[in-house]
Description:
Chain B: Residues 47-147 form the Nucleoside transporter/FeoB GTPase Gate domain. The complex is a heterodimer. Chain A is mainly α.
Amino acid sequence: MINVIWMALILIGFVFAAVQGNIETVTSAAFDGAKTGVTVCFGLISVLVFWLGMMRLAEDSGLLQKIAKLLSPIVRFLFPDVPKNHPAMGYILSNMSANLLGLGNAATPMGIKAMQELQTLNPDKTAASPAMCTLLALNTASITLIPTTLIAIRMNYQSANPTEIVGPTLAATIVATLAAVAADRYYRRKLLKRGQKPPIPSGPPPSATPDAKG
Amino acid sequence: MTALINVISAWAIPALIAFIPLFAFVKKVPVYESFVLGAKDGFQTAIQIIPNLVGMMVAISVFRVSGALDFFVGWTGPFLSSLGVPSEILPLGLLRPLTGTGSLAFATDLISVYGPDSMIGRMASTIQGSTDTTLYVLTVYMGAVGIRNGRYSLKVGLFSDVVGFIASIAVCLLFFG
Lengths: 214, 177
């Protein structure tokens, strides 16, 4: 997917420039783009170094676990089919609290561990369980408290008020997450309703096969 | 509502900067050493995305300077601008669910061309910051446990991206308009 997008952007740009007879702009645009890429990354260093330092403090002090505790009633509501003391619960909570603090690097490994634990509860190992779908929905919408990268970029381009977007971003991310949760609930109900009907036999039931060889 | 958003924008970061070290100090964490240890990762993270961002910035820069971007944006312009939405923002909405660095590069491009404090710059910042890259999250999470059928998760992810995109624009128009 990403390969196609990347190539398409370059090739379409090339064709447009060629047709309009200003092919030389492609060269300067390419090198300008490369330069901007590096400049932006260097601009990110200051904010990322500082913010990840703060986040390490949040982790070491147990603030992350505190947030997880606050979130646990919400998570129990969102994941009704995960047993309360199942290890998956802990990973889901860490994943959500890391996301909240904008700790993408910590959120992903926690999310993957949560997926692995949810897989042990999953009857069909190749299809996502409803609980997995909810976890995915929360992570694709991903509530962000502080959009650090964007603040850094705005600082780079001399914004008069780089953090003025914090409030609007929070408002938008809450709306997007609520939409994800609502849509997830809707499809989950639809899926479970279908599941309650007598299952139409499709291939041999998995429980019958282990004895076949014995 | 706008007053509340203003207060959050102004206070969220200072409050965290003061509260996190204080909390850690009370919990007997060696605050400065712990901070420096974590801060080391920040340098790595910033350097690691250079190749990705350079690749994407080059593609988007060529696409824009060649006139291709204006051509595609031109189609949707009249319709969107009648709603008060700058049409320049639409490609960002299309890129956002597909590629995180691609959309970051595009948002950066918009900010550099129109300025961070223009309406387009503010919208780009909000759209980019408010959701995560749906395609990436699904690939990584499902790939890690060998799930091939994601059921409705792609639909849900894309739906929340559309809602987030519209919400970002609406909030910016309301708040900065």
